[in-house]
Design goal:
The structure holds 2 protein chains of 2 kinds. Chain A is an all-beta fold. Chain A has no helices and 11 strands. Chain A is globular and about 40 Å long. The chains are: A mainly beta, B mainly beta. At the A-B interface, β5, β9 and β10 of A face β3 and β4 of B.
Chain lengths: ~110, ~110
């Protein structure tokens, strides 16, 4: 969904490096999410944010941190990257006014940690 | 949180109707049923959502029986471009932050 933009689209880094993945949205949604997907598997929730002042850990938050700089921006950081963090990362948003919580996803960031 | 069970994979041919059933025995009163489609290396895309009975949009239909313990996504006259992974999610107010994306159903449409 072009309304949810992730940068970079691809990133190769080395073990121990700090990297940041960025997500911005123009949908005006308050809720934002970061997911990780490993090959052949479903998505797992890393962190989520209900609004600018709210940050919550998801299923697999260890080794990650996030920053909600504004309603439209939600960044994911790997403080010291390790090879098993090689994966496809997705950002998503949803509207807190909608009961069904339909999520809208970005195109993803493919991260390789060597 | 209601976990879901769906077939790991399905095969179909172009032009056929495809029905993918999802089981969610522990669905809560306020939970919605939502289906997403994912192509390789792309983010999941919302297809359809329902609460009860039948919902239809330009892409698919969603059939939900009265007990809501299962649901069926129906894709009419599939084409090769419908080859993708389809996820069934159950959740609603109060637990949406724990939406569980399982492995989904890999639909393979053959010519």
């Amino acid at each position: 969904d072009a309304d949810v933009t992730q940068t970079p689209r691809n990133r190769i880094t080395k073990t121990g490096k700090r990297i940041m993945l960025e997500c911005s949205q123009t949908k005006g949604h308050d809720r934002m999410y970061w997911y990780r997907q490993d090959p052949g598997l479903g998505l797992r929730l890393i962190y989520y944010s209900f609004d600018v002042k709210d940050i919550n850990k998801g299923e697999i938050s260890d080794g990650y941190s996030v920053s909600r700089q504004a309603q439209a921006k939600f960044s994911l950081s790997l403080e010291s990257a390790i090879p098993n963090q090689t994966a496809l990362y997705f950002c998503a948003t949803s509207d807190d006014r909608a009961e069904g919580n339909i999520q809208y996803f970005g195109a993803g960031t493919r991260l390789s940690v060597l | 949180l209601a976990k879901t069970t769906q077939p790991i994979s399905m095969d179909s041919y172009e032009g056929q109707e495809v029905n993918i059933t999802c089981s969610h025995n522990n669905i809560a009163t306020n939970d919605y049923i939502t289906w997403y489609q994912q192509f390789p290396s792309q983010g999941p895309r919302f297809i359809i959502q329902g609460y009860k009975t039948k919902v239809t949009n330009e892409v698919a239909s969603l059939f939900i029986p009265a007990d809501r313990k299962s649901s069926t996504l129906s894709l009419p006259r599939v084409s090769l471009s419908d080859t993708a992974v389809y996820y069934c999610l159950v959740g609603g107010p109060g637990n949406f932050n724990k939406f569980y994306f399982g492995s989904g159903t890999k639909l393979n449409v053959k010519p």
